[in-house]
Amino acid sequence: MTDATATDLTHAARSQWWDVWDQFRSHKGALIGAGFFLAIVLLVVLGPYLWPLDPTQTNIRSRNQGMSWAHPMGTDQLGRDIFARVIAGGRISMAVGLTAMGLSLLLGTLIGVLAGYFKRLDGLLMRLTDLFLALPLLPLLLVMVLLFREPLTAAFGVETGIFILIVAAIGITSWMQTARIVRGDVLALKEREFVLAARSIGTPPARIITRHILPNVLSPIMVSATLGIATAIITESALSFLGLGFPPDFPTWGRLLNDGVQYLQNYPGRAFWPGLAISLVVLSINYVGDGLRDALDPRLRGR
């Protein structure tokens, strides 16, 4: 390959990504959603360094206070600062969402590519996918938590063990949609001329998949990634709300929401603030996924 050809390919790739960015920023909802999501991520990551109050520190004299400059979201029944607890809970919820999304995406992409490219594996893997889709997910999650909670907490400690359990439970039960989407795209791509040409000259299947198949299914994978973060955060919040997630002294948005329900009539802010954080994150991620879907689809680019 000459230097001129390499330069042309580099400019073409750079131009393609500029086209994707131009299409993405033309989607106002996606741009606003990305701004909200980035702001929330920065808040939960940098918040503990900027906000001096300890989320676990109790002060009975300051309990059940309303909004003030000292406590922007008020305090709870033990005098703990709700703003500091929302920030700490956000770090856990976001970590669970991102890690579980990565596991789900890895499983879904692997199974989807194998089922779509290798015909002899298609029937087996798709029946496995149908089996997982037919299972009631919430009862399955509850059973997994009840079965593996004690062994994992005994092996890794309470916090790490429950984190591994929640991430594994969400990831194992949420890969099916990604697998079906990726399989459909791979079935169409493997009959395209450039894949047939690569196969005709003896290119190994692994190289065809990594060089030709995976780059062309990037769009549905990235969209599934954004939606997977939102699904994982909601699922973790639901488990914590039911009392099956992290322990009470380890705040997550779902746990904070659960703790605030019994004070809903007298102190509605305790449930409002973590519920608002969950809603804003999920809504912003959904808008980002919508924008990525439009930006990465060549048929919509330039409209």
TrEMBL record:
It holds the Pfam family OppC_N. Gene3D superfamilies: MetI-like. It comes from the Bacteria. Residues 90-289 form the ABC transmembrane type-1 domain. The keyword ATP-binding does not apply. Its main location: membrane. It is found in: Cell membrane. InterPro entries: BP-dependent_transpt_permease, MetI-like, MetI-like_sf, OppC_N. It is a multi-pass membrane protein. Keywords: Cell membrane, Membrane, Transmembrane, Transmembrane helix, Transport. The chain crosses the membrane at residues 30-51, 92-118, 130-148, 154-175, 217-246, 271-289. Belongs to the binding-protein-dependent transport system permease family. This is Peptide ABC transporter permease.
